[in-house]
Amino acid sequence: MAETQAKIKIQYYRSSIQAPFKHKRVVKGLGFTRLNQIVEREDTPSIRGMVKTVPHLVRIVEN
User: Where in the chain are the domains?
Assistant: First the structure.
């Protein structure tokens, strides 16, 4: 049986226009395509690290 992985909801709430190119790639890698979008991802160390890289652009939304 496959265990269900914990999920986190992440919101893209600030524009990355003036952000460095690497930050733009992280936002794209998280799956965001537009501002104020909320996506649900598995709660893994790699996703947490991506969120930690751009805390000024994204935030974790409480369930």
Answer: 17-61
Q: Which amino acid is at 12?
A: Y
Q: Report which residue type is found at 24.
A: K
Q: What is the DSSP string of 1-63?
A: -PPPPPEEEEEE-S--TTS-HHHHHHHHHTT--STT-EEEEE--HHHHHHHHH-TTTEEEEP-
C-alpha–C-alpha distance, residues 3 and 53, integer Å: 28
Query: Is the pTM above the cut of 0.90?
Result: no
CB 38 within 8 A of CB 11: yes
CATH class of the region 17-61: alpha beta
24-37 pLDDT, tens digit per residue, is 999 999 999 999 99
